[in-house]
Every structure is written in structure tokens, then in C-alpha cells.
């Protein structure tokens, strides 16, 4: 009945068409003119069409001030024209001190400290979904899909731009094809429009249409673009054929791999786009930052595959989509060793499943309804066993063919609110487990944008052999979203059987948590500070079944940035004892950690300078206990010149006397006192020959040891307490660990044509793990380099083909 009522509410709300009307006097308007002959995109504004075009000017400050007019010596003018193929933009940025303009050469979507000009188009004028185009002073392109205040720079489009500099300032020309935009099929287009300019050497940002930072989101403050009429949405069909070749060498063996395939983008209509990957190739994705993981939860990695990061804002609604599930470790990988017979050996047990194909269909109608469909299919994976006596081969399925599916409906209304319905489903043909999750979400602001109400209701269903588990989770928050003083309360709930881990990720369930916060922030500079924020918060965590307190805590934090872009901040909190139900690795069993306090602090210097520094420190102290932890992150960055920069990072973490899970012996859950230290060194280096060609270096070495006090083992007893117990290392595994990993990536990237690139990549890696935790850093490092190194050299070439250009070529 509850689900039926929720669906009725959804249908009623989807039928509402009461979009709030904004005061037209609060939005600037610009009228574009039609042209017959397109300008040459060279940054030189010498065509007659620019003399006839209307001018957008009178920019106002958005950072750090609030609405101050741009100085006359840095006046900015923008002009827009269009034809049947594209929109053309010309911008003039005056600069009284051109020698101070920061002009850093970087690769696509990497702005660094360069100054830049940008334009936002909201083709449905819905107050949220915008497409952003940026050109830096060096000519680097960046583009992003904006949803509210979030910018997704994995969203890459094909467009043209060029810059030019002289003693008066700098200039930009842009050509944005209609194939790069989604817009309704109407006679007269009316789009949301925003221009912006970052003057980095003055630490100032200006916009064309005023943005009130104290209320709402930046996407709700666009002006209006008018005058574009009688344009037909083009056939949006783009092909990205690729070919790749890779040479791998490991343990004296060399193998050669050749692959070819294609990605495809097709505009189904004016609103919706199909993204399809055929024979996907992820051989050049960045390595995962693997660490020594001794906790009860899996390590979470970022997504490095472009198909799963680009244009996925609809599918991320409700945090039910963890894309690394697609192509992850087979469910039966760990059990394959246990299934090996005494007279057998395992000759193959793949750690990853292969992705066969994947597609996305997404878009939004002119009534604000967003629709998304995602589907992916992974191949069957098998462990292969060989009989040592007969040589007979036996296979066991560790992961069957699997289908991953997401369906999303997201209705925007009042230009600031939305309700959503999302369903995720994983089907494995009845093997192992199937999973299905449905979520109903709402994110609603009042008319004045001064209060926000957000809620989620999610239901999970997991089919196991002979068992079906249904779970439920919810979230609700109410927040003041206007003015200097802001506050909010929230509640999170999940029952014992809530499980979204077939396509999502959730570490814990069975909770009933409450939290609240209050903060004060400024939106205009005060004294020597451009901005600052101070906040207080509190939380009360409870177990749902049984209904007991898990933890309570209060804390505060602050952040500030000076006029010279020196940032600093930190926080402190105090917590009651914590009942950890997951460290024990046993259902409805917990271990108690003593009350504790923690503090953190950071500084970040001005990145505009040749040398900049980030430092972060953190400490955690437990009362009436020797358990304590400390961490230090030290990261200097050097800009050697405008083409070459290096970032070094050192991360050191130390834990002393942490009560930690060791093993389960018979019915006893064994704990030990663990000391763990970790040291990570990494270097990121970039050298750009031009904005189209560059070298990139990524090097990471991570070392961690875990050492247990072998004279102090305990077993868990009632009420989370522990008592001393004898633990025989001769009969049980040694819990000490020495973990060492090394990764190096060196790549040359060349964008030889719009949307087309070639990447030559060399990488090597080393890995070692043993029980020799007593070894020091240098001894462990030497032992790591005694291992066999894995070397890989690969070349990948992607070529962009646009249907409209091919059609015009044949017509001509």
C-alpha cells in the first residue's frame, strides 16, 4: 500500500506544469543575429559580422565581492552570432597590465592557474542543467556538464576555439556546433545564458548576469539568450573508432595484444542521446590507489573509465550506482581456492569480469522531465583447475553472464526543485545472487530559495539461492539555505536487510541516526579575509535492532581564505564511546572503543606563485586507552614555467595500540593490539608542448606495516568487552603484514584533430606482501624491487567522425 501511494504521488507531481515565473527585470537579455558566412576561428576579430553583432557587457563581480562593476581598464565585451550549423562567440578582455596575465599551458579540462573566459548555455532554461565551455589564456579548452553547483569535466564535447593577445588584452573566438548541444525543436529558441571571466592575477571573477551567492545555486542566475530562430537540431551521430596495441612483459614472458572497437553517440531526438561502447578497451585507465586494507569493508576506488564518468549525473541520483561494480571481481573468486581438490592446481582464476558492451540513453524534455536508461553486460568468468595426476581440466563458473540495468525518471519544477524515481537491477541468471533496488527521491526548495527539504526512500531486494531478502532505508533533511546564518537537521534510517551492493555501495545498515548543524559565513570580503565559514554540528547514532546507542558526538569546524589566496581551516570534535558492529565480522556482535576526541588543521598557500604548499595534520586520542592515531599530509607544488609543473605528495599515517580483529578460532573472536604505519610518496608531473600535446608522469609508492603485540591477545565477551586469551601462532596465521606497491605511468598525449587523439603509454608496477612487519622502510623497499616487475607499453588511437561533416563532404 505504501508503494502504491508513493507511485500515485509521483504521477500527480509529474502532471504538474506550474513552473514559477521569474521577474524578467532580474535577468539580462541578449539577442543573437543570424549570419550567412561563418567567421574564421583564429582569435582575430576582424570580420564584419562582429561589428554588426549586439554587445554583452557591464560585467559584475562574483568573487570575492558581490556585484561590484568590472573596472574600465578590464572591461569585457561579448558578441554572439549563429548560422544553420553553429553558434559563434567573440569575447574581448581588456587588461591594463597584460604582462601580469597568467598564461599556463595545460591539457584539456585542466585549468591550473590560467585566466579564462567561459560561457554557460541552459538550452531548456530549467535552472539546473547547463553546458559549460571555457577557453584559457593559453588556448586550453575545458567543457563540463553542470547540475546545480556540481561541474562534471568528464563530459567532453567537440568544438573549436582560438585566442589572440596584444598590448590591450586578449581575445577569444569560439564555434560551438549544434551537435554539441541538446535543445528543443522550436521555431524560436530561448536559452539560459551566462558569460564569466576569471582574472586570476587579481584573484577576481566577473559574470555577465548577477549571481546572489547568499541564496540558491549559480545555475539559477542565468540571463536570457534570444534571437535564435529557425534552426533545426542536426542529426547528432558521432563515431569514435579506436585501435590499440599493447606489449606486456612479466616474469620473463611477453605477450602482444591488439584490440579495435568503437564508441558511438547518437541523438535519438532533440532531447535524448544514446551512448554505446562496442568492444570496450580500458587498457589505458589510470591505476587504482591500492592500500593495505585490514578493515571490515572493501576499499573504494574512483572510476577511471570515461564511459562510466561522462554524462552520468542522472544515474547517480540517490547514490545507488557504484560503477566499479560493472566488471568487478567475480563473486566466486575468493571461494575458488577453497573449491580446489587436493590433487588439483588452479591454472586460471580471473580477478575481473570482462565488459561485453554498455549503453546509456539520457536526456530531458522541454517540460523538465529527465529520463535515463543504463545497461551493461559482462561475460561469464571461470576458474580453471588441472588435475596433477591425469592432467584433466575442470572449470567452475565464478561469475555467470550478468546484466546491469538502471532506469531513472527525474522531474524538475519551479527551476529549483525535483522529484526522482530510480530503479537498479542486476541479473545473474539465478546464479549466486540477483539484486534490485528502487528509490523515490525529492529535493524541494520554497519559492524564495530560503529553505530546502530533501528526502529519500529506498527499497532493496536480494535474491539468494533459496532466500529472498527485502530491505528499506530512508533519509530526510530540512535546511536553511539563505543568508549568513544557516542551519539544518537530518535523519537517516536503514533496517537490517537493506543491501544495495550489487550495483551500489553501502558499508553499513541497521541504523537510526540523527544529526544537526548551524553555521555562519560571509559572502563579501571583511578585513583581510575574502571569505570564511564557521560551523557547529552534532550527531546521535543508534542501532535500529536492537534499539541501543552506538555513538554521540559534537564538533565544530572553520574555513577561511585571505585576499592573497592563503587558505586555512580545521575542526575538533568530541565523541562518546563507540560500539563497532562491523570490526567483529560477526552478526549482532560489537566491540567497544573508548570515548575519544579528534582534531584537524590545514593550510594551503597561493597556487598562483611558483612554489605553493599544502599541509594537513590530524590526530585522534582515545580516553583511558593507549589507542591513538596521527596523520600528516605534506604536498609542495612547483610551477617551473608556464609549460612544466610538478606536484609532490607525502602522506604519513600512524596508529598505536588499536584493538583490531585477528581471527575467529572455534567460537572465539580474537582481537589484538595493532600498530600500523603507512607512508605514501607520489609525484605528478606535466609538461605541455602545446595545449594539444603533452607529457604526463604519475608515480606512486605506498608502504604499510601492521604489527600486533603477540603477548596481548584477547577474545570478545558479552557487551563488547574483551578478556585475555592465548593465541597460538604456530596453529593460526600470523596477522602481521608488510605491504608494498609501486606504480609508474608515463604518457604522451596528442590531440591531432578535434575529438581525436593518440596516447602512447608506458607503465610498470611492483607488488609485495608478506609478514615481515619488522622490516624498515629501506629494507622493505629493497625487497619490493627484488620482485618481478610488470611492464606495459601501449598505443591507443581514437578518431572522431561526425555524421554531418561526412554528409557535407559527400554533398560537396
Architecture blueprint of SSEs:
Elements: H1 2-14, E1 29-31, E2 33-34, H2 48-52, E3 60-63, E4 76-82, E5 86-94, E6 116-122, E7 129-136, E8 141-147, E9 150-152, E10 160-166, E11 169-177, E12 188-199, E13 204-207, E14 223-229, E15 237-250, E16 253-267, E17 272-278, H3 335-338, E18 344-348, E19 355-364, E20 369-378, E21 381-387, E22 393-399, E23 402-413, E24 417-427, E25 434-445, E26 451-464, E27 467-480, E28 485-494, E29 511-521, E30 529-542, E31 549-562, E32 567-575, E33 578-580, E34 591-593, E35 596-604, E36 611-622, E37 628-641, E38 644-665, E39 668-688, E40 693-716, E41 722-724, E42 737-753, E43 756-770, H4 777-784, E44 790-798, E45 801-802, H5 803-811
Number of helices: 5
Helical content, roughly?
under 10%
* Mean pLDDT over all positions: 92
CATH architecture title of the domain at 2-229:
Sandwich
Strand content: over 45%
CATH class of the domain at 2-229: Mainly Beta
According to CATH, what is the topology of the domain at 2-229? Immunoglobulin-like
Tell the overall outline. globular
N-to-C CA distance: 63 Å
Structural class of the helices, strands and pairings?
mainly beta
The count of β-strands is 45
> For the report, how would you describe the main beta sheet?
24 strands, antiparallel, barrel
- Poorly predicted regions are 1-25
Key phrases:
Immunoglobulin-like, disordered N terminus, globular, 812 residues, nine-stranded mixed sheet, 24-stranded antiparallel beta barrel, mainly beta
Amino acid at each position: 500500500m505504501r508503494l502504491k501511494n508513493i507511485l500515485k504521488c509521483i504521477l500527480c507531481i509529474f502532471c504538474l506544469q506550474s513552473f514559477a515565473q521569474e521577474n524578467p527585470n532580474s535577468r539580462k537579455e541578449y539577442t543573437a543575429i543570424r549570419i550567412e558566412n561563418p567567421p574564421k576561428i583564429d582569435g582575430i576579430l576582424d570580420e564584419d559580422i562582429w561589428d554588426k553583432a549586439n554587445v554583452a557587457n557591464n560585467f559584475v563581480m562574483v568573487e570575492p565581492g558581490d556585484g561590484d562593476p568590472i573596472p574600465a581598464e578590464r572591461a569585457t565585451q561579448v558578441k554572439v552570432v549563429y548560422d544553420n550549423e553553429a553558434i559563434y562567440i567573440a569575447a574581448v578582455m581588456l587588461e591594463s597590465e597584460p604582462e601580469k596575465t597568467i598564461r599556463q599551458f595545460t591539457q584539456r579540462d585542466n585549468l591550473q592557474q590560467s585566466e579564462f573566459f567561459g560561457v554557460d548555455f541552459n538550452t531548456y532554461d530549467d535552472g539546473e542543467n547547463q553546458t559549460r565551455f571555457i577557453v584559457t589564456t593559453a588556448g586550453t579548452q575545458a567543457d563540463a556538464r553542470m547540475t546545480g553547483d556540481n561541474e562534471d569535466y568528464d563530459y567532453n564535447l567537440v568544438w573549436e576555439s582560438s585566442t589572440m593577445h596584444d598590448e590591450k588584452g586578449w581575445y577569444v573566438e569560439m564555434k560551438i556546433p549544434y551537435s554539441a548541444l541538446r535543445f528543443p525543436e522550436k521555431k524560436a529558441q530561448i536559452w539560459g545564458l551566462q558569460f564569466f571571466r576569471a582574472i586570476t592575477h587579481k584573484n577576481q571573477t566577473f559574470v555577465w548576469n548577477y549571481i546572489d551567492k547568499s541564496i540558491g545555486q549559480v545555475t539559477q542566475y542565468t540571463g536570457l539568450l534570444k534571437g535564435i530562430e529557425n534552426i533545426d537540431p542536426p542529426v547528432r551521430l558521432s563515431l569514435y573508432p579506436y585501435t590499440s596495441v599493447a606489449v606486456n612483459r612479466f616474469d620473463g614472458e611477453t605477450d602482444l595484444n591488439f584490440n579495435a572497437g568503437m564508441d558511438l553517440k547518437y541523438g535519438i531526438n532533440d532531447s535524448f542521446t544514446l551512448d554505446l561502447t562496442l568492444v570496450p578497451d580500458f587498457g589505458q585507465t589510470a591505476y587504482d590507489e591500492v592500500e593495505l586494507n585490514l578493515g571490515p569493508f572493501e576499499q573504494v576506488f574512483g572510476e577511471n573509465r570515461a564511459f562510466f564518468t561522462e554524462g552520468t549525473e542522472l544515474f547517480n541520483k540517490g547514490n545507488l550506482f557504484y560503477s566499479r561494480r560493472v566488471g568487478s571481481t567475480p563473486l566466486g573468486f575468493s571461494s575458488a581456492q577453497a573449491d580446489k581438490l587436493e590433487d588439483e592446481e588452479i591454472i586460471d582464476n580471473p580477478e575481473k569480469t570482462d565488459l561485453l558492451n554498455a549503453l546509456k540513453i539520457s536526456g530531458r524534455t522541454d517540460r523538465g522531465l529527465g529520463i535515463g536508461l543504463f545497461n551493461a553486460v559482462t561475460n561469464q568468468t571461470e576458474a580453471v583447475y588441472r588435475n596433477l595426476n591425469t592432467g584433466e581440466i575442470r572449470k567452475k563458473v565464478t561469475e555467470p553472464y550478468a546484466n546491469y540495468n538502471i532506469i531513472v525518471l527525474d522531474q524538475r519544477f519551479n527551476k529549483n526543485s525535483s522529484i526522482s524515481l530510480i530503479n537498479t537491477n542486476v541479473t545473474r541468471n539465478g546464479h549466486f545472487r540477483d539484486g534490485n533496488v528502487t528509490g523515490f527521491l525529492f529535493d524541494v526548495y520554497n519559492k524564495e530559495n530560503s529553505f530546502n527539504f530533501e528526502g529519500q526512500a529506498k527499497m532493496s531486494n536480494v535474491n539468494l539461492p533459496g532466500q529472498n531478502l527485502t530491505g528499506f532505508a530512508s533519509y530526510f533533511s530540512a535546511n536553511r539555505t539563505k543568508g549568513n546564518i544557516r542551519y539544518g537537521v537530518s535523519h537517516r534510517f536503514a533496517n537490517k536487510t537493506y543491501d544495495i551492493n550489487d550495483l551500489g555501495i553501502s558499508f553499513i545498515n541497521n541504523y537510526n541516526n540523527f544529526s544537526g548543524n548551524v553555521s555562519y559565513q560571509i559572502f563579501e570580503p571583511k578585513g583581510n579575509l575574502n571569505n570564511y565559514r564557521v560551523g557547529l554540528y552534532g550527531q546521535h547514532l543508534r542501532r535500529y535492532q536492537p534499539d541501543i546507542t552506538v555513538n554521540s558526538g559534537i564538533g565544530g569546524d572553520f574555513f577561511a581564505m585571505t585576499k592573497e589566496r592563503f587558505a586555512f581551516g580545521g575542526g575538533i570534535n568530541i565523541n562518546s564511546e563507540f560500539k563497532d558492529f562491523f570490526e567483529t565480522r560477526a552478526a549482532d556482535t560489537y566491540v567497544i572503543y573508548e570515548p575519544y576526541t579528534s582534531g584537524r588543521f590545514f593550510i594551503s598557500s597561493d597556487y598562483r606563485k611558483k612554489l605553493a604548499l599544502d599541509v594537513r595534520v590530524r590526530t585522534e586520542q582515545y580516553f583511558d586507552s593507549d589507542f591513538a592515531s596521527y596523520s600528516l599530509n605534506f604536498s609542495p607544488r612547483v610551477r617551473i614555467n608556464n609549460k612544466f609543473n610538478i606536484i609532490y605528495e607525502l602522506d604519513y599515517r600512524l596508529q598505536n595500540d588499536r584493538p583490531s580483529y585477528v581471527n575467529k578460532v572455534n567460537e572465539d573472536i580474537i582481537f589484538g593490539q595493532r600498530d600500523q604505519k603507512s607512508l605514501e610518496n607520489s609525484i605528478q608531473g606535466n609538461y605541455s608542448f602545446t595545449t594539444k600535446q603533452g607529457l604526463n608522469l604519475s608515480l606512486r609508492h605506498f608502504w604499510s606495516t601492521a604489527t600486533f603485540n603477540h603477548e596481548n591477545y584477547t577474545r570478545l565477551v558479552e557487551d563488547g568487552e574483551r578478556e585475555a586469551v592465548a593465541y597460538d601462532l604456530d596453529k593460526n596465521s600470523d596477522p602481521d603484514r608488510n605491504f608494498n606497491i609501486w606504480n609508474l605511468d608515463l604518457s604522451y598525449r596528442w590531440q591531432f584533430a578535434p575529438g581525436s587523439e593518440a596516447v602512447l603509454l608506458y607503465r610498470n608496477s611492483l607488488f609485495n606482501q608478506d609478514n615481515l612487519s619488522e622490516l624498515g622502510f629501506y629494507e622493505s623497499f629493497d625487497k619490493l624491487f627484488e620482485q618481478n616487475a610488470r611492464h606495459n607499453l601501449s598505443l591507443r588511437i581514437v578518431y572522431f567522425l561526425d555524421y554531418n561533416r561526412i554528409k557535407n563532404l559527400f554533398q560537396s
